[in-house]
Design brief:
The protein has helices spanning 4-12, 45-61, 76-87, 114-123, 142-156, 178-198, 224-237, 258-261, 294-297, 299-302, and strands at residues 23-26, 29-32, 36-37, 65-67, 96-101, 163-167, 204-207, 245-252, 265-267, 270-272, 318-320, 331-332, 338-339. It is α/β, with parallel strands linked by helices. The longest helix has 21 residues, at 178-198.
Length: 356
Amino acid sequence: MATTRATWAYRDRFGDGFGRTYFRRFGPGVVSSVGLGTYLGDPTDAVDEAYERALIAGLDGGCNVIDTAVNYRCGRSERVVGRAVERADVDRDAVVVATKGGFLPFDGDRPADPAAYVRETYVEDGPVDPADLAAGYHCIAPDAVDALLDRSLDALGLEVVDCYYVHNPETQLRVRSREAVYDELEATFERLERRVAAGDIGRYGVATWRALRVPPDDDAHLSLPRIVECARSAAAAVGRSETGFEAIQLPFSVHMADAFTVRAHEFEGERRSGGGERPRPRRGERRRGDVRPARCAGVRRRLRVTAPAATVTGPTTGTVTSAGPSTPGRSRDRCGRRTPRPGRPAFSAPSRTPRT
């Protein structure tokens, strides 16, 4: 598991090789604002080898965040991540490994009959109740996510996953109501709170495609404040004083700026974006000292939800996952206060289509 000592030592090995804000705080330590994603590519040995070389080069070169998922490339991506972390000239404790569970994975390649594979592997004497399935292969019920987390730990060859995401929970909105999805998330969060307490994961969150960046009247909308309330209730239900929910993931790029421009979430009587933007005051209402940009007044900061920097593997869309401050130095932030400057949004594995 990533630790304070190891991640700071990782940062220090590069001296002044990166900009002052390149490493940002996350959990007990610091992470690079650019990381490594593993979503794209065919499920072949050749792509595995290319990924392993790229991951090792990234880890050796200053990227200590890796993002993957149990289903990426038919389960191959997690295995490659595990090998790269083991073989790179970097301590395991210096690397933040994030993975996801929700889409039921294949085993190395795409089967001739995917529906039959899902039925035989996960439904018949498996952890998935067919009533919990959406789109034929998505399930975020507690037993299913528990089993997928175990599968990820085995594939990665790690004792601990630093950050575990419930993957695209909005997929469940195709077959059930929002209230039912919130109830299911709370039940699954209870299971993940127990896994945090057991030391299997460092923290957890949700990785979304549309849920957090569309308005409430959109069929794919989920409320970030409501999700956080589910996490708090889950923590209380298992006797934990603080929730392990510390991360969110959603797309963000020049062409997909909804995370900061769409006021999709009701919080403390105001409508805010997933990035925390508040409504601008009308002309004449602004007073000196009233300027509070998104990063200073964000939903995530106010709810004590933080997240790691994420990853870049190409030129298009990215994923916002950073809400914490950058590490060294003090200067006037955009609120005019003398504090460590908040970290800028980071970006993750690009795709022009939703990740599954």
